[in-house]
Amino acid sequence: MATQNYRSLDCITVTDITALGIALEAADRIHGKLAGIIRDYGTGTPHTWQMICKQVLSPELPFPFHQMMYYGCYKDFGPDPVAWLPDSGSAILTNVGQLLEKRGKEFLGSKYKDPISSFLDFQEFSVSNPEVYWKTILEEMNISFSVPPECILREDTTRPGGHWLPGAHTNPAKNCLCLNEMRTLDDIALMWQDEGDDEVPVKRMTFQELRSAVWLVAYAIETLGLEKGSAIAIDMPMDVNAVVIYLAIILAGYVVVSIADSFAPSEISSRLKISQAKAIFTQDLIIRGDKKLPLYSRVVDAQSPTAIVIPTIGSSFSMKLRDRDISWHSFRERVNGSKEIEFVAVERPVEAFTNILFSSGTTGEPKAIPWTIFTPFKAAADGWCHMDIRKGDIVAWPTNLGWMMGPWLVYASLLNGASMALYNGSPLGSGFAKFVQDAKVTTLGVIPSIVRTWKSTDSTASYDWSAIRCFASTGEASSVDEYLWLMGRAQYKPVIEYCGGTEIGGGFISGSLLQCQSLAAFSTPAMGCSLFILGEDGLPIPPDVPGIGELALGSLMFGASSTLLNADHYDIYFKKMPVWNGKVLRRHGDVFERTARGYYRAHGRADDTMNLGGIKVSSVEIERICNAVDTNILETAAVGVPPPNGGPERLVIAVVFKNSDESPHDLRNLAASFNSALQKKLNPLFKVSNVIPLPSLPRTASNKVMRRILRLQFSQSEQDSKL
To answer: What is the pTM of this model?
Structure first.
């Protein structure tokens, strides 16, 4: 923490404040308030900071002043300074707070005191008493079953994750649409705006309108004549049509194949083949500002099955459709008039698939991860417990159905009776910031790279984000200063850090509105999850002891995967993992640190999969493309290197040349060539930050490249250059 450059609060003068561009009269007033806070709360306590946030700081004040207050307050505090504190009044109004006030003594006995001081006990209860905990949460979320489960969990020595909700039949899309105490027909289900329409009022869709739209598409899907359980892909931006299609596919008893709209044809093709998709929904173009990016043509180049194609502008297409493809208008005309007739949901066993998503493996081929019928309830439960999503909330999270946070957003919003807010365009500019204001978003999800752009361009300035109750962040490691800035945009509402995986259906570690939150840190294992940090001997270090190492997970996790379509699930997640209390632990692959104050911090991947801008990608995929860029390249190694001040990993390519006489100018050209190839063949968002020539790559005795060694060397080199 960069406190050494700041003075403690009691040493700050009016002159220090005016030096940051604050007018003398305002500086005098601020200094007076600060003196009163110091008198009442001391110079450097969490409550001092809490009162500074409430009485002194505002989004209009320059950010260096926010830093002066934060770092001055915590100058002598040590690690993990508290950025946000819960208060008892608001704590008992949260979902978990209300539940604990009603049943805390029943769950925890005499240990129960209040929602804040008993939260960690409740988290431990959720792990040790899954039968009671998950029955309670499913009831709280009003989840209905056509055939109820025989029990919550049936353990099985041949299946480390056990059998959850055995015997149950349900449909998660039906649960999103059915009426209960959390929603009526007139409640708003979706809010949206198109980029460029910033002066037009935010559009809204009620639950009645959403139900009708989903029913119509579900009836139309039936006309395709596909066998129930068939896979149907979606490759398009996450707009209202995409959400309607997603729910309709699942409501009708089919399986969604999630494909990100940024993928090249080869990536689309591999996912269609692995999933054996029988049809695909897409649109002809993606509009981003003044750019028109082709999408349907990429789907065609991927040799897709029958495509249902939505025109991006008006009713005409930018190119002629293939003979077997169907326009969106013609598709819906097949069943025109059916939207007022309720589509009877296809209720399936909970172990049936509902969604096939993809996560990069270390072999280069994407891992195909099926979500089962009950995985959506894990996503929604995380939203209910950790982000406190409830009726009346408006949830925005820039994402895509191709990544797990797309389906997560659908379920975490709709199953909890909240509204989903979608912006059809880039989230980086002032248009999105105005949308957050106009839609009165209460829960805003981010990834750090978006926040970095907002901060550097000041695109959120002048917009009122005071409706926000909390931020949530996932996808990559965050930076303290960037998230201090983010909190300041909404009068210091908390940031709930959230980390998990596609194969988990949500998070394994998070924050909570019932706990103090520290920037760029996690405060608790996710509800129902147990975490283990492995020491150098490969065994878990004692709980509550500080340490750093590879993270392992308790095997009994509601919603977690139990199979993969194109890999051996046991080999990837359980093989050669330690046994703890008679149960084999589950591999995750991230390195985590548990701090002395009980927080957790992420330190990147332990294996050779890296995280670039929230997208997991294997080194092998990148190296395969880079190796072909120049005939003078012998081999490459791709590693993700965290910057010295924290934040998302940067892509560094180590290169061994056949002829080593490459000049710095040549390396710059090579970096540009790498970027061009990666963006064309893999993902347009990837960017090489540095190319480093080496005489050879470090290897193990079995000739495997030791990318971890390179990552350490490059990280240390960056740290040294900063010093």
So the answer is: 0.88
